[in-house]
What we know:
Elements: H1 4-9, E1 13-14, E2 31-32, H2 35-39, H3 42-63, E3 68-72, H4 78-85, E4 90-95, H5 98-109, E5 118-123, E6 140-143, H6 155-166, E7 170-171, E8 178-179, E9 181-183, E10 186-197, H7 198-201, H8 203-215, E11 219-222, E12 238-239, E13 244-250, E14 257-260, E15 266-267, E16 281-294, E17 301-305, H9 307-311, H10 313-316, H11 320-330, E18 334-337, E19 350-353, E20 366-368, E21 371-373, E22 375-376, H12 382-388, H13 391-406
Amino acid sequence: QLSPARALLSAPFWLGGPTMASDYTPAAEGIPQYFLPMLDDRDRNLKYHAAITAAIRQFKAEQRRPPRVLDVGVGTGMLSAICLEAGCASVTGLDTNETMCHLADLHLGKLRSRGGGSFQVVHCPGGKAPAWFAGRRFDMLVSEILGTLTTSESMLKYLTKYARAHLDVFVDEATGERRVYAVPQRTAQHYASYAFPRADLGPTLSAVLEATLEAAAGRFLPTNDGGLGLGLHLYPRERVGPRRTFYEEDYTRWPFSHSHAHSKPEPLQLHAPPGGRTSDFLYLGLLEWDVTLWGRGDGAVGLSNSLDGYEAFGASFPDGGRNGFARAAAWGFFAMRLPQPVPRATGAPKLQIARLNGQTSAKPKITVDGVEYHEVLDDPQPQLAMAADTALPAAYLRALAAAADGERGRGRRLLIVNDISCGA
């Protein structure tokens, strides 16, 4: 039996996010690469801290005791640590990944000296809790198994599974509602169309991005580090057409529920932003989301994985740019190439979003102008980062100009080597 620290040191470092070539299967071991930028996402961390603290405070006020909390997908143990800090009676973290269970146990063990509630970390191979765990009951559920989509890590499927077996339901005597205490409370998945000025992308990036999207036609392209590796929030753009909310999940009542809208074909309302021609823009379809972690109205604590949400980081933190990079690297968006909005005899291109059930599928099915998107091209596309680097070619041009000037009239040949990497 390895100690938690030694088990962690001997574990592999898993490079890449959760594969989406098929529906989500959690990793059994290793430290996923996306955990590093996810932990650097200060906005995410503070929002979960505020939401869990408010949820435990409300539970204590309504039930007159501290809650027993179940943390589904414990990861590094951050949410469990927040629960302990907020005054829960106990917290139990579950995870399919043995490496992360060791890491969470190691982190939470450092909190023992502070007193407070007790904790336990339980390894659930293949998502199945050990036999001895049957019958354990909890008052509150917390989880952060979000991803590029709200459904990327099959949150509805796993939260329903563990809630059915272990979560207590509180019946509102006035309304008869079967309430539960859960963080998050609601999720909403959106579709939006954007026009990116080609002049701001630059000729090289514009051409490479368009070619990459064309080659991937029929497959979603993640923009995070596991795919394009491109921070789209850094580039000027304008949303064209309405933002469509096509899928929602609700974790405030039992049983948990989901709903879907926009299942019929609808015209894509694409147009050139004011003052521009359609040929001046590259049109992309992006999947974005918003999540209510806790509360309602002005007092709600929420997370936004949208281009507009990334913009807000600058107003929230002095290092807002760093937060944007962190979220773009860990989550990012699913991107699709849209047709140019030029007059056509067949009329405007159509968008259809098929019904999605998060219990059975982690990915939506979207048809754009007759092309169906469902699978995901989750192979890294390093050519995008190279095309986005305008400093390197500028430096090469200056070097070439200097070399050509120095060798002018000597008749010598010039050897050009472009093989610079991290090991340069």
